Amino acid sequence: MKKLPTNRMKIKAQLNHMKYTIIGALSIIVITTLGCTKEKDANAAIPCDTTNTTYSVTVTGLLRNYGCLGCHVGPNPVGNIQLGNYSSVKQLADNGKLFGSINWSPGFSKMPQGAPKMADCDISKIKAWIDAGAPNN
Ligand code: HEC
Predict the structure, then answer these.
(1) How far is the CA of 74 from the centre of ligand 1 (A)?
(2) Structural contact between residues 94 and 87, judged by C-beta atoms closer than 8 angstroms
(3) Global pTM?
(4) CA 54–ligand 1 middle distance (angstroms)
(5) Is the pLDDT of residue 8 over 70?
(6) Burial 84-121 (b: 16+ CB within 10 A, else e)
(7) What does the CA dihedral 68, 70, 75, 76 come to, rounded to 10 degrees?
(8) 112 has a pLDDT exceeding 60
(9) 3-state DSSP call for residue 106?
(10) Does the CB atom of residue 71 touch ligand 1 within 6 A?
């Protein structure tokens, strides 16, 4: 007879524990969802400015920032892909390999190799430069 209240208390405590676990899990889901929604909205609010993209500032800056130059410069660039000078980059822009690789288009090697894809806006900037005829500006 004495055991009954103890068992009941145990069950009550277990139920309470479950309740808080469920509330905790739900809170995490809600917070994560809200966080992601906010992030998306914030990104959507920032327009991607692809005007005034130049080889000398925009393109070389992005190639440096995304680590492309770590593999693709010097006398023996990886994959025999040279990104260290204008005429080579221009050639890759004109034959579609530059855009195909950073856009992860089918049939091209995904670049930067072994790293996440470039941000959409940065890909758009390089595309704008290519579409403008890949000038040496
Ligand atoms: C860790 C080294 C490494 C980095 C960093 C890297 N690449 Fe490459 N890249 C390679 C290798 C290796 C190949 C050749 C083999 C292959 O196609 O996978 C290659 C091939 C390419 C090609 C030819 C693609 C094709 O399909 O013919 C292009 C263009 C290119 N890279 C551009 C870039 C650009 C732009 C970046 C930066 C966004 C970059 N790479 C970053 C290693 C790298």
Answers:
(1) 14
(2) no
(3) 0.75
(4) 21
(5) no
(6) eebeebbebbeeebbbbbbbeeeeeeebbeeeeebeee
(7) -80
(8) yes
(9) coil
(10) yes
pLDDT of residue 51: 95
Q: If you search the block for the tokens 């410069």, which residue do you land on?
A: 73
Tell me the one-letter amino acid at 84. Answer: G
In terms of C-beta density within 10 A (0-12 exposed, 13-18 middle, 19 or more buried), how is residue 54 classed?
middle
- The residue whose C-alpha atom lies closest to atom 36 belonging to ligand 1 is 68
**How many residues in the chain?**
137
Q: Which amino acid is at 68?
A: C
The encoded tokens of residue 70 equal 């770590």
Q: Which of 82, 97, 109, 120 to mutate to test the pocket of ligand 1 (most atoms within 8 A of CB)?
A: 109
Over residues 42-63, the pLDDT tens digits come to: 555 678 999 999 999 999 999 9
